[in-house]
Design goal:
The structure holds two protein chains of two kinds. By secondary structure, chain A is α/β, with parallel strands linked by helices. Chain A has helices at 50-57, 84-90, 102-105, 112-124, 128-141, 147-150, 160-172, 190-207, 218-224, 242-247, 252-259, 266-270, 303-307, and strands at 6-19, 22-35, 39-43, 66-74, 77-78, 95-98, 178-182, 210-215, 227-232, 235-241, 312-315, 318-321. In chain A, the strands form two sheets. In chain A, strands 6-7-8-3-9-10-12-11 form an eight-stranded mixed beta sheet, with helices on both faces. In chain A, strands 2-1-4-5 form a four-stranded antiparallel beta sheet, covered by helices on one side. Chain B has a domain at 94-299: Orthogonal Bundle (MetI-like fold), CATH 1.10.3720.10. Chain B is built from 14 helices and no strands. Chain B is flat, with a radius of gyration of 24 Å. Classes of the chains: A alpha/beta, B mainly alpha.
Chain lengths: 326, 309
């Protein structure tokens, strides 16, 4: 196995929001490692803290109400300890981000070219014309046809898929070392999704960028990621190589997630009549259950799970947060 | 774009005809005989009758309206019943004062209101937001005549810095425009604050920040441009109203504007002047609206008036 060097290392990240109803801890002490050149998938249900993790990395959450604690080391520098100017130098340059909603993530009153070139001008010190030429080049790179025309257009004239391409062009324009992709394909049609996945795969190779891929789509993870982290209610419950996770999920929650993927032919193989579902709901962040956070929904719950927080078990290069594997 | 402007200008014609129709008949429903008012209390029946004939009030009302329209087409608004001067001359001597005052007041209001609204939205729920918001509330609740009088007391009577009324120099316009602006600024501040808060909560603001842009850049370039539409609407509406004249302020500062002209003419039943002034007011209001619509299209590329996509 080839040697991987750490690019981003998150230690004991805790992000909470001070609200009128109390303190909401969206991310509760997670550890993550992204190595150079790899794609790390982060998967989990809505509200498990995936997006908040990504926004915490670039410190894009308004503070207050948000409060971010822990360590986020990027190339050995703690992003959380940086001054505002230093983190701004990182944003859009060394680390950039793609968002879920291409419809609302682009500014409706600025041209595509302006939105791409402003980051180029800012971080690479190019002149207006040079940055504009680079913006056209980026649009060609993400395979937008007649880029010289599109660059002058406003977002409302572009389809959802085109906007997401423009968004990717914008995020990659300064050749970031790390790309945070927060549900990059969720809002798109399936055929467009496939195109965007291919595009991201190709560009990742071209630009040598590492990717933190956040999604609830396990198919996308299987396609793009090398390792995967499963999050539940603000905690990392399992971490493994993609092949290992799909062939042998260890945490009951991961098993539940994989069981809920529709799979043609499964009925014949296993005789199951319907998709498995995970019973119950994700707990409210304001009222976390005692002990293991998954225990009210866990099919293999034990007495100990209800009272005590589960230990983090290291097993064959995997991490599982569960009493079952103690 | 040119076609759109032309179409909009042509469509003002039916509106103006509508205004003149309503105006003409509503005026004639006012109680009191204009000939009687003009002739005075002591006038004899013969005098009143001759004034009535002179002004054409003895003819049937539809004939009067026909005459009025036929003169209107020739841009002849008639003569004032009070002063015998042509109505256009009467309006011409007042309108520049009103436009001057309206422009000064709206400029002052924007210069203060828009930055105050932006700062309030960015620093929401801090002392500076509360300060600006309460100032806006203060401005909106203060009666204009009272504020005007207080300003006169302080700056003219006590400090003797500025004239108490009249026109003629830059100094004369300071107090009345300030008085009017205090009222308008409240609307602009509140609208800017609300609109900026809305814009700042949008996804594209997070995108802009994720690119590493400076916060000022995010606020001015990305948020403000999106927040401008409602602000322009309020500014346009207020400006349109100011062009109609500000009777109270004009009265306090003895400012010879359209507001006082209209009120004085109504009191004197000077039909030609009332008709002319209100028609001009209607026309200006329509023009201001047209300009506001054109500014919309300039700011927001999603709004296009030429019918093409």
């Amino acid at each position: 196995m080839m040697e991987f060097h750490s690019l981003l290392s998150i230690r004991n990240l805790r992000t909470c929001f001070h609200t009128y109803e109390g303190v909401v801890t969206a991310v509760d002490g997670i550890d993550l490692e992204v190595y150079r050149g790899e794609t790390l998938g982060v998967v989990g249900e809505s509200g498990c803290g995936k997006s908040v993790t990504a926004l915490s990395i670039l410190r894009l959450l308004a503070s207050p109400p948000a409060e971010i604690k822990g360590e986020i080391l990027f190339e050995e520098r703690d992003l959380l300890k940086m001054s505002v100017d230093e983190i701004r130098e990182i944003r859009g340059n060394a680390i950039s981000m793609i968002f879920q909603e291409p419809m609302t993530s682009l500014n409706p009153v600025l041209t595509i070219g302006e939105q791409i070139s402003e980051a180029i001008r800012l971080h690479q010190g190019l002149t207006r014309q040079e940055a504009w030429a680079k913006a056209i080049e980026m649009l060609q790179m993400v395979q937008i046809s007649s880029a010289e025309v599109r660059v002058n257009e406003y977002p409302h004239k572009l389809s959802g898929g085109m906007r997401q391409r423009a968004m990717i062009a914008m995020a990659l324009s300064c050749h970031p070392r790390l790309l945070l992709a927060d549900e990059p394909t969720t809002a798109l049609d399936v055929t467009i999704q496939a195109q965007i996945v291919d595009l991201m795969e190709r560009l990742k190779e071209e630009i040598h960028t590492s990717v933190l891929l956040i999604t609830h789509n396990l198919g996308l993870i299987a396609e793009m990621a090398r390792r995967v982290v499963v999050m539940y209610a603000g905690k990392v419950v399992e971490e493994a190589l993609v092949e290992d996770l799909f062939s042998e999920p260890l945490h009951p929650y991961t098993q539940g997630l994989l069981g809920s993927i529709p799979w043609i032919g499964r009925k014949m193989e296993t005789g199951r009549r319907q998709l498995q579902e995970i019973p119950g709901m994700v707990p409210s962040l304001l009222e976390m259950p005692e002990g293991c956070r998954f225990h009210p929904r866990c099919p293999r719950v034990m007495e100990v799970c209800k009272g005590e927080e589960p230990p983090l078990v290291q097993k064959e290069g995997r991490r599982i947060l569960c009493w079952l594997w103690k | 774009m040119f076609q759109y402007v032309l179409k909009r200008l042509l469509s003002t014609l039916p509106v103006l005809i509508g205004i003149s129709l309503l105006l003409f008949f509503m005026l004639r429903m006012l109680p009191g005989d204009p000939a009687q008012v003009l002739a005075g209390q002591m006038a004899s029946q013969e005098d009143i009758q001759s004034i009535r004939q002179q002004l054409g009030f003895d003819k049937p009302i539809f004939v009067q309206f026909g005459l009025f329209l036929s003169r209107l087409i020739r841009f002849d608004l008639g003569r004032s019943a009070r002063t015998q001067n042509p109505v256009l001359e009467e309006i011409g001597s007042r309108l520049p004062n009103t436009v001057l005052l309206a422009v000064a007041a709206i400029t002052l209001a924007c210069l203060f209101g828009i930055p105050a609204g932006i700062i309030s939205a960015v620093r929401r729920y801090t002392w500076i937001d509360y300060l600006f918001t309460s100032m806006a509330l203060f401005g909106i609740s203060m009666p204009v005549f009272w504020l005007g009088l207080m300003l006169v007391v302080v700056f003219s009577v006590l400090l003797k810095w500025l004239p108490a009324g009249g026109t003629g120099s830059f100094k004369h316009i300071i107090l009345p425009s300030f008085t009017l602006a205090a009222f308008v600024v409240a609307f602009i501040t509140r609208m800017t604050r609300a609109s900026m808060m809305e814009a700042l909560s949008q996804d594209y603001i997070t995108t802009a920040r994720s690119k590493g842009l400076k916060e000022q850049m995010v606020i001015i370039k990305h948020a403000l441009k999106n927040a401008l539409i409602p602000i322009i609407t309020v500014v346009g509406l207020q400006f349109g109203l100011l062009l109609g004249g500000a009777v109270l302020t004009e009265t306090v500062f003895a400012w010879p504007g359209m507001g006082r002209l209209i009120v004085d003419s109504i009191l004197a039943r000077d039909y030609p002047v009332i008709q002319g002034a209100i028609l001009i007011f209607g026309l200006l209001y329509i023009l201001v609206n047209l300009v506001v619509d054109l500014i919309y299209a300039y700011i927001d590329p999603r709004i296009r008036y030429d019918g093409r996509k």
